[in-house]
Amino acid sequence: MLRDGATLPETEVGRSVVPVADANGSRRIVPHVRVEQLDAFFGAVHAVRGASVELHDRSVTAIIGPSGCGKSTFLRCLNRMHETVPGARVSGRVLVEGTDVYNGKVSAVAVRRRVGMVFQRPTPFPTMSIRDNVAAGLRVMHDVHRSRRAVDEVVERALRRAALWDEVRDRLHSSATSLSGGQQQRLCIARALATEPAVLLLDEPTASLDPDTADWVRSWLERYRASRNATVLLASHNMQQAARVSDDTAFFLMGELVEFAPTSQMFTAPLDERSEAYITGRFG
């Protein structure tokens, strides 16, 4: 369990799918992320309705659906960002690596370290430098004891992975707000990657970017998918992007998880007529 800054249990850097025996002795795979009857509310608004799904280690899942269908809220529930909104509440269970993140003894900070997130719009910490933005996640828990040199190495590695190092290496101590919008989004990607998250949530990460930067993010996502460094959930309005980069696809409508299927099936032979209507452009 996560207590006062403890991390999620780690096996092979916290990203192992554990085979276990069921009642009849057969081996089965424990899902990396399991969502059970998740309901999310904003006051009286029921934003996510009884969603249940299992995601396996290092898979990439696209979450599709029209605006206001619950995609972003669902993602924010997985790392307990939903609870930061006044009047918001959650019921049900979200298990990451076997730990219920909504257990009362679990630290939200520890959850967010293991479940990173990149939002629709760049969200650099405005009072921090470029370096300190990337290093922010390392300041919690045991990482606070890292040497400055070790932190600098992590920062450089994360910025290189976000293709930003060469552009900022000579101004790491400048304000993050001095960067362009596209650079800020890449900085946020670097910040999310710095803690080596077990799960990475991407909420329409190209929605507010210029075309060139959006193309870069899409290319980065394809490379990141190939690396299989984390379990990834991508909320997207872009059907081509969702079909190209994901293993599985979840379709939400009016807060309901209507269908979850392998991407090849979802985009060619969905089982629910509502999924087919959305994918073929009849609404949304």
What's a quick, concise take on this entry?
The protein is of the alpha/beta class and 284 residues long. It has helices at residues 71-78, 108-114, 130-135, 148-161, 165-168, 181-194, 211-227, 239-245, 263-266, 273-279; strands spanning 19-21, 27-29, 33-42, 45-55, 60-64, 88-96, 99-100, 115-118, 199-203, 231-235, 248-253, 256-262. Helices cover 31% and strands 25% of the residues.
Task: Give me the secondary-structure topology.
Layout: E1 19-21, E2 27-29, E3 33-42, E4 45-55, E5 60-64, H1 71-78, E6 88-96, E7 99-100, H2 108-114, E8 115-118, H3 130-135, H4 148-161, H5 165-168, H6 181-194, E9 199-203, H7 211-227, E10 231-235, H8 239-245, E11 248-253, E12 256-262, H9 263-266, H10 273-279
Helix pairs in contact: 4-6
Output the keywords.
284 residues; alpha/beta; 6-stranded mixed sheet; 4-stranded antiparallel sheet; 10 helices; globular; disordered N terminus
Could you characterize what this model shows?
The chain is of the alpha/beta class and 284 residues long. It is built from 10 helices and 12 strands. The chain has helices at 71-78, 108-114, 130-135, 148-161, 165-168, 181-194, 211-227, 239-245, 263-266, 273-279, and strands at residues 19-21, 27-29, 33-42, 45-55, 60-64, 88-96, 99-100, 115-118, 199-203, 231-235, 248-253, 256-262. Helices cover 31% and strands 25% of the residues. It has a 6-stranded mixed beta sheet with strand order 8-9-10-5-11-12, sandwiched between helices. Strands 4-3-6-7 form a 4-stranded antiparallel beta sheet, with helices on one face. Strands 1-2 form a two-stranded antiparallel ribbon.
